[in-house]
Each structure stands twice: as structure tokens, then as C-alpha cells.
Amino acid sequence: MSRNAPNAHALRHRVVIVGAGFGGLFAVRALRRVQVDVTVVDRVNYHLFQPLLYQVATGVLSEGDIAPPIRDVLRKQDNARVLFGEVVHVDLATREVELDTLGGAMRLPYDSLIVAAGAAQSYFGHDEFAVHAPGMKTIDDALELRGRIFGAFEMAELDCEAAERDAWLTFVVVGAGPTGVELAGQIAELSRRALRANYRAFDPRSARIIVLDAADTVLPPFAKPLQRRAHRDLEALGVEVQLGAMVTGVDATGLHVKRKDGSTDRIDAHTKIWAAGVQASPLGASLGDQSGAPVDRAGRISVQHDCTLPGHPEVFVVGDLMSLNRLPGLAEVAMQSGHHAARTIARRLDGDTTERPFRYIDLGTMATIARFKAVVSIGRVHITGLVGWLMWLVVHLTFLTGFKNRVSALANWTIAFLGRGRRQRTITEQQVFARTREIPQPKGGVAERET
Amino acid sequence: MSRNAPNAHALRHRVVIVGAGFGGLFAVRALRRVQVDVTVVDRVNYHLFQPLLYQVATGVLSEGDIAPPIRDVLRKQDNARVLFGEVVHVDLATREVELDTLGGAMRLPYDSLIVAAGAAQSYFGHDEFAVHAPGMKTIDDALELRGRIFGAFEMAELDCEAAERDAWLTFVVVGAGPTGVELAGQIAELSRRALRANYRAFDPRSARIIVLDAADTVLPPFAKPLQRRAHRDLEALGVEVQLGAMVTGVDATGLHVKRKDGSTDRIDAHTKIWAAGVQASPLGASLGDQSGAPVDRAGRISVQHDCTLPGHPEVFVVGDLMSLNRLPGLAEVAMQSGHHAARTIARRLDGDTTERPFRYIDLGTMATIARFKAVVSIGRVHITGLVGWLMWLVVHLTFLTGFKNRVSALANWTIAFLGRGRRQRTITEQQVFARTREIPQPKGGVAERET
């Protein structure tokens, strides 16, 4: 606890871990009984349980339910400290990480480095879409979308033309992967069930929810029967599934779509959500430049079989930033690769320097469409419907357990799923002010806003 | 549900209610069985249970726990609709309310009007303090303070000079009324208990929490024995109570204080919270101009004995915006005056036009200092300690009941009070970016932030 503590341990092996997502967190946990000094750095103060982000965006869970503070998760791990800041550069030659904090710049020397910086939303070269169609990668994204979704229903309740009301009641989710499918399903449940009797000028069940994708199936990574089942489940909920549809433009009041047959059309919709692609952290490009490792179009860096950079056995790249054996960008891959990197460091300190390749064990994938409806794939076994949903629930609660949020998340889920309501529907004033810049004002003009 | 519905009811008496705080909400509820058309207007989409706002600021509860959507609370009240917008003007001559919405300007004609627009934070003419010392009146305030409080501990964990660390670990609450006392008590509990083992560079128990006030007692409206007890309880928690201390300046890194003996000094503290005064809605001044009713320094408008404007029996002013019989700005006063206004409208429609003055029934006041510690005053009866705290808990849970948030709030309270943690500690990135403009950067300079 003394200010000289770092010097007292100067001889201990220093491990720096960049990012406290699934990859980083599993790496630091795997080092808990190893004689090292671990420093975990993240630009946010929480570990994000990303698979449930869509539940924050739709008012089921609060941000705290899925985002435990990193330092609280690690409070009992004495060999680890957590620093709040953004890594702007890794210097492979001097073995230092450059950190940008609110208190100034810092340089962190390392003996071993695990880069688990993850990925952000990708707009495939159209970053200008972002302001009109927020992504689904961060707590800020989810809170922004929550404000937009509930705000859209508020707007529809104001006196307005029928066409304008229809545009407020149209929700377009771009991307039919697990996130897009889950989000569309939740918005459908919201409008069909949770918001019942809340409005006087319209029936919320009349809301139109569209999920669209350039691919010709929903849930591309899943097996055909599960795709068909998910497609059917979505339509039963009232979601329009539009496949072979490429978004060519997004603006404040709608989006332009090019169909598979070459035709184009416009969808009038105030609320657009982008769940279509990811772009790895910019750290990847820099690490590629310095080490000569190839970086793919999505910004992911090709690593050796043991997750290290070529020529830099002390540097590991794991999770969404890693390109290895065509592994998908799943939480499970991040966890296992983070764990592998940490175990490799521990083995080396024990004198075992043999190189062991990372082997991913596929524990199965799942996606939930709505309450009581999920698709689960474990090897060749497919499970759907209520049983699939119960499996999904058990797995997600088990993961949250480690973060001590199980009791409250369970309470909130019980209320939200079995009850009628959505507890988290707050639109902050900050969001309202931000949006006044974006929403086109009618010609009648608006009186000056008082402060 | 048809678009002509408003015309179909054109002969019904139209009641417009401005604001859905305690005054507005109790007014609309009191009209639920009356043959009127009620329109409730608010600039936010939630009813704020303000007495628990400090629990959002300190991570105990989520915003949704204390801010149920207005339209969900009123979903079963068929004669009421809710509009999301800000009232910028009331025209007493034409009997219209001018509404500024994200969809444009609207004019709402009324037959009876209840103005329950409440009050905002007052900086006593020093609005420039606000950026450095946010108030405690809105959900946005509470979320901003949550980010600053947990962010301050993050900053202290970064490598920094001892003096700088002390300034990050000093929290100053300006104002020793119920809000200030409750907030200071919660920050003390946070640092003494909830954040245990979270940091490596310092012990969070070393945090300094100061509550200061120009008055010479804490909790001015309470009786002397309760003030003494609250003062003692605060000090036992480790809170420094500084009385007779007037704030003369606030900046990013501290504040200037003038003591009762005329001396002045500076307190170095990055986190300042303003809980010192209120200023009624600007609508008060405009209503005073039009009706000739006096408006006091705090912006409150003097009403007739039945809460109406002089010369305008169809316009009621209730709650914090109302000045009548020196009644304090309490939730209970707002509820009872809102109810009185609604009942008066209902009586008149029944043909009873006798004027009945508003009579406030004092049901007691309470303030909580920490878990298991509260002071309660019911007439001449004083209750303190655990019994007082249990009363406080029952009363607050009972009020939340009506909003259906009881189960989850109870679950969250149980976890937070009896357990060790604070579930809601998210710092949004939006807040971090906003703060980079305010925090002075050290001379070493900071590398460019990547986006």
C-alpha cells in the first residue's frame, strides 16, 4: 500500500493486459496464483457482459446489471491492479505501453503483454452512418439506443401526421446475426406486450420492426435448421425479416436499401440500429506494422499458433483482435485465448518454454429470439424453443455469477420476463439535447428552449 | 384510438397539468374518476422519486428504480394522456399552454390548468459554479455525479503526487439539508465499506468527506435534538461537518470558503456537489407578470388560499412553485396541494363552487444518514437510530409501491445495504469525454486520443 510498493516488487515479472473484456478478464484471473505483477488497463471502468447489451437497450436490465466494475471483480486478486485509461500505443522495441489517462500520459513497462483490446462497430467505410444508426458495442451505445427507442414512442404520441407517426413507429435493425436477431425480438416484445395501454394516439402493437441483412439467412454461423427456426420465431413475433438487402445510405429519417434483384428502395424510419459488423481495435494495425504480422480487412492481426506476435514471444494477442485458424469473434474464443496466453506466461516462469498451440474447444453457440425462444447449437446437437431458452438462461446466469450480479439480474429478469413491464426506460436530458441537433424541425418553427 | 378522438370529447372539461413530479402526479391520479380530459406534460419521460436520487448518485440504485415512466404509471387511467415536451409559456388570456417538443411547437388549450413545474437547483446568482459542482435535482445530475464520484477514485489510483491524490479523495457536499446529509452519509459508507479492497495505491477509507453549510446547524427544518443526533451520526461515519461556512468560489480543483469569523480558506477537492438551494421554474415569473401575483426571490409565486392565481380561479399553482403559508418545499406539500387542486376542479364540475382553502396536514419529516440511521419527526415525537431507519424504509417502499418498482428496488436495496457492494458504478464514455474539457492536464502533456 505504500507509494514505494512498485519498487519493492521490481524483480517480479510484470504482465500488462490491455482490455478487460472476456479475453483480458480471463487472462488476469488465470494469473491469480502466479508470482507476477499484473496491470490491467481499460478505457472504461467496467467489464461489459456484451451478450446482454441488447437487454439494456430495450429497458430490461440496468447498465450496472451487466457491467460490474473491473476492480471490484478483481478486488481479491492482490497481484493485480486496474488502471483507467486508454492505450494509444504499444512500443514493441522498448517494451512499453503508452497510456492516455484523464490525469495525463503514462508509460507502462512490461515483461509480458496480453493485448485484448477487442473490436468496435464497423460501418464498412461509411462512418457517417453512425450518428443516425448507433452501434451495439458499448454501454453508451445501449443507453443511447434506449433513449431513441423509448423516445420514438414518445414522439409518436405527439400530434403528428400519419406518415410521420409511421416513421416514428418503424424500427430497423441492420444485421441479422445474434445481436440483431436478439434486439429485433426484444423490440417486438416491447411493442407487443410491455408497452400495452401506455399510449392514447396509437396502438404500440402497430409498430413495424424490420431486421435486414445482405446475407440470405438470419444467424449465418448457425446450422440451417436453426436458421429456419429462428426465422420462423421472429416472424411469429411480428418481425419483418428482409434478406439479401444491402444498406446504401442512412439519414435522420430513414435508410436506402439495395435489394438482391438490383432494385432500390427507401424505408422511412427514425430509429435505426447498426448490428452489422466489427472492426478490430486500431492497436492491431500498429502491432502489425511493428512486427510484420499481417492484418486483415477487419483489422485483426494474424498471430502464431500460440497467440503470440511473430518475433515477439512476449506479446500475446487474444480475442476479437486475434486472427487465428478462422476462429469466430465469440466471447468463448476470447475467454479461452486469454486463458491460454496467461497459462503460457505461467509455464514459462516455471521454466517450461515449450511452445503449445492454442486449441479452441467449441462449447456450443446460442442465440435467444424472445422469452421462451432460443436456438442452441452444441456440435451436431440442435436445441430450440423453451428448452433452448432455459439453457440460454442457465448459461448466462452462471457467467454473471462470477460477477456477483446474479441475484439482482435474476430479480430484474423475473420482473421483466414474467411481468409486463420494462423497468429501465429513462431518457436522459443529455440525450434529448443531443438529439435536438439531429431531428429535422417542422416548418412551423419551435419556440426557444429555456434553460 | 381514432385520430378524431380529441374532437369526439370536445365537450369534456380539459385539464392540463404541467409537470409530473409529486404535485402533478397526485393531481392527475385524483382526477381518475372525474369526467374530464387530462393532458399531463413533462420535459422528461419519467416521474422522479427525488428523495432517493442520492442513491442513484452513489451507485445503490439504478435510474429506473426511482424513475418510472409517467405513462406507465398512468396507463390504466383512460382519461389521461401524457405528452413529452417542455412548457415554455402559459397564456392566461387565451387559456393556452405553449409546448416545445422535439417534433415542433404545440399549443394546448385548457379549461383548468394545474402548474406543478417544480424547482431547479439554485446557485444564488453564481450559475458558473454549476459546471464544477453539479446539483442534485435530476436523473442527469445523479448520473453525472455517479460518474464523478467513482471517477475520482479511479483518478486516485493512477500514479500521481500525494497532494493530487488527496484532492481526488476529497468530496465536498455544499448544503447540510436532507439531500446534503444523505449524500455525505452515502459517500462515507461507500469509501468506508463498499469500496474495500478495490484499490492498490491508497486505502479508500482515507477519503475525506466534508459537508458544509452557511447555517450553523445541519438539517435546519428539524428540531434541535434531531439536528444534534444527525450531526453526531455523520461524524461517527467519518464525515467532517463544517457549519457557518459560505462558499465564495468554485473551480475545477477546489472551492473557496468564508468562515463565520471572517477568515477565508481554500479546500482542494476535485469532486464538489451542490445541494444548497432551489430556484422555482421560470414559469413562475411569467405567471406573476400576467396575473399580478407576487413572486419571491426563489421564484415561487404567491397564490390564493385555494392555490389559485389571483383573478384566475381556473389556474392552480402547486408544489415547489407555490408560495403559501410559508410551507416548505417538501414532497408531501406538493402531493397534498396537487390533490387539493384536482379535487377543487372536480367539485366545481359537480356544481360546488364554494372556495375551500388548502390545509396542509403535516405527516412528519424524515432524513436518513446511513443504513440503520435516520431521524424522524412526527409532530412533537422524535425517532432516531434503527427504528427511525426502519420507518424511513417502510415509508419509502410504500411510496414506490404505487409505481410497481418495489420488488426490484427492495432486491437492490437488500443487496446494497446488507451486502458489501454498489451495483451501479458505470461511468459512461460520454461523461469521460465531457470531463476531458474540464480537468487540468499536467504539464507533461497527453498523447492524442484515438477515436
From TrEMBL, chains A, B:
The keyword RNA-binding does not apply. GO terms for molecular function: NADH dehydrogenase (quinone) (non-electrogenic) activity. Keywords: FAD, Flavoprotein, Membrane, NAD, Oxidoreductase, Transmembrane, Transmembrane helix. Residues 14-338 form the FAD/NAD(P)-binding domain. It catalyses: a quinone + NADH + H(+) = a quinol + NAD(+). InterPro entries: FAD/NAD-bd_sf, FAD/NAD-binding_dom, NDH-2. Gene3D superfamilies: 3.50.50.100. It comes from the Bacteria. Its EC number is 1.6.5.9. The chain crosses the membrane at residues 381-403. The keyword Repressor does not apply. Belongs to the NADH dehydrogenase family. PANTHER family: EXTERNAL NADH-UBIQUINONE OXIDOREDUCTASE 1, MITOCHONDRIAL-RELATED, NADH DEHYDROGENASE. This is NADH:ubiquinone reductase (non-electrogenic). The lineage of its organism: Bacteria, Bacillati, Actinomycetota, Actinomycetes, Propionibacteriales.
